[in-house]
Request: fold
Amino acid sequence: MPKVPFQAALEALLGPLRFAAADDFARIDRVRDLEATVAQAASRVAAMEIPDEAREAARAVAGRFAAPLAGDARREAVREALATLAPFAAPDYPDQALARSVATLPGVGPKRAQMLSRRGLGRLLDLLFHLPTRYEDRRVLQPIGALQVGTRATFVGEVLLADHITTHGRGRGGRLFQAVLADGTGTVNLKWFRGGDAIAKAVRKGVRLRASGEVRRYRFDKEVIHPEIDVLGDEDAEAGGEGLVPVYTAPEGVPPRTFRRWIATAVARHADLVADMLPASLVAARKLPSAADAVREVHAPAPGAEPVAYQAHESRAHERLVLEELYLLELGLALRHAEGEKVPAIEVSFGDAVQRSVRTLPFALTGAQQRVWGEIARDLGRGHPMSRLLQGDVGSGKTVIAALGAVAVAEAGCQAAMMAPTELLAEQHARTLRTLLSGVPEVRIALLTASVAKPEAQEIRAGLASGDIDLVVGTHALVQDDVAFARLALVVIDEQHRFGVLQRQALAAKAPGDTLPHTLVMTATPIPRSLALTLYGDLDVSVIDELPPGRTPVRTALLRSGEGRQVLDAVKATLAEGGQVYVVYPLVEESEKVDLRAASDQAEAIARALPGTPVDLVHGRLDAAERRAAMSRFERGETGILVSTTVIEVGVDVPNATLMVIEHAERFGLAQLHQLRGRVGRGARPGTCLMVARGGSEDSEARLRAMLATTDGFAIADADLEIRGPGDFLGTRQHGKLPDLRFADLVRDTRLVALAREAARETVRRDPGLRTDSELARAVRVRWCDRLALVGVG
Ligand code: ADP
Ligand code: MG
Reply:
């Protein structure tokens, strides 16, 4: 699990901070080198492969502690750092008794407790909730003579011979302990390269053993290295197997059997403290065990347990734990949603401006667009902030919906801001919006990015502050401190996965007084349903599930290196029909120069091969003016081919472009590939996407297969989630919003997410604010408060 090192590093950072803050800073001046320690630990966290939000937070802390502090400033810095880091700290558990150290368990001394703690297993609850990764089916004892090389097996036999032996050759040689086990059908060698002395005390000639492990071949014999063994006494004469035995990822250096014993002890002594949170009706309907029993059962399945369900983590016991977890999460989200209802927002009243602009659009809205607009209009008219996620596949027409929102807000005398992830996209949005809204010239539109000239930018900022500008389109330049709005009422965020939560909040803070702006988050990368329900549980979701009429799915083909001829043929054919072509290169930072050279070489090669065809090259190193010029040449149809690094990745709209060539397709993520493909087939003529793969991994092959299999963005999103797993999926995109789930797997447990959400919504309907169930309220608060930025729960 890649999360563990991060959590461990974070704990190393939080430790001294918490210590300093404890008991109202009683010991703050006793921490040696507090500043240096914190700054160092924070830099270490910041250097890790973590979501940008977390990195930003760690950097901020490192900066704050870069110089010595004293007195109040020192206390304030500690307070601030703890608050900054809180969203990323490991979730806690409401029951204090379970938060006690594992050092309270017999057999776990302070030293081992420390080692466990470093691995995120320092508390009793960490052991209770450390689920087996799989189960070993030891019910069937195998005759030793029938052991199969390459399989895991459990068998019983008598020790014929047991001795330390010294090996030579094969490298260094060394000393190992070996026992030969026999049962009348055959013999097998058991070998220990480590810990042989201790083993030798128990494993003597004549003793009966039950052993399990992976059977291997060694010369003419079968052997098992470091088997798990039980010495059988007389009472075990008829010893059968042990049933389903849990297998854990044990910390390095802890023998599996020892680790299993620790967990078994923790379960036997403390499982009864695991509280039930799920509504009784749900428990009854699904015939679930109590949470405490569920913990007992996942660690020690009953003799009659169904192995398949356990292996798949789909037993009743697993289900109970997953539902318990998801229910609390969904409660937190439901409560956060309810909190939004208490905050005031500007109530937008509608005149005829929206109608007028719809009438002057160059097309009629699709049914899906009309429905979605209805949902948004209803939200804008209420006195509470809209929090809505607008999902729609590439090309489904989200921009016009945002434009209508801006028109409504402008007519009501307020302002709208639209934030795009790249300058190029912001520029294009501004142009598109000006065209779409030409029927309502009273809506004044401005563009604000880092490359807008200084005097002009100043003018725009003045216009925003005075209210002269109704709609501003921009990049992160919009969240800068020097940008103030007269009456900001609507924030639209396009392609939200590029923005951190912090930036979104910074923009929200620019709304007047104690109001929050209405927020519309638009994403063209569909989010799998299970993720939408968890991550965006506090957002209402609108889906444009219909493409504008006349679109045909983009034809997709995969070429390997060496098939460049076909690319050139396709380019020629497209140009001959009057279409235009994108050729996209990945731009990996470490090898930026190399990739750039590849892209410009290609541009030249194409220009040579197709004399007379205007070719342009667009990349991140060009300054804004050059880039804009090249883009508008392409938009006007003056260039036939646009060779580009990924700057056109998101949102570019040139309906006459019908061929997309993706070079080094294996280097792109699935969402990116889908985005790129969405750049063609936007007009009446069908589009083609050629992916050229030049090597790659198993994962990249899986991505390319998914691209060939479907053009449906939702299916792509599901495939993406499956290939990458939810952690990565969220980690790289949903900056900092990754909820730490112990039990639930968002791929496996989609169904349970929906179930938990339903139950949570029902609970909040019956008891808004959870005022009658303080224990439940506390559990939600402790578990999710920080992470969901819940304010007044319980
Ligand atoms: P996306 O959802 O990917 O942001 P856009 O808003 O860029 O999609 O729209 C894609 C293209 O479809 C644009 O050229 C836009 O003008 C066009 N479009 C949007 N809605 C309709 C419609 N109802 N009928 C026809 N074309 C439409
Ligand atoms: Mg778009």
About this structure: The first helix runs from residue 3 to 25. The chain has a mean pLDDT of 84. Residues 628 and 701 are 35 Å apart (CA to CA). The chain has 27 helices and 21 strands.
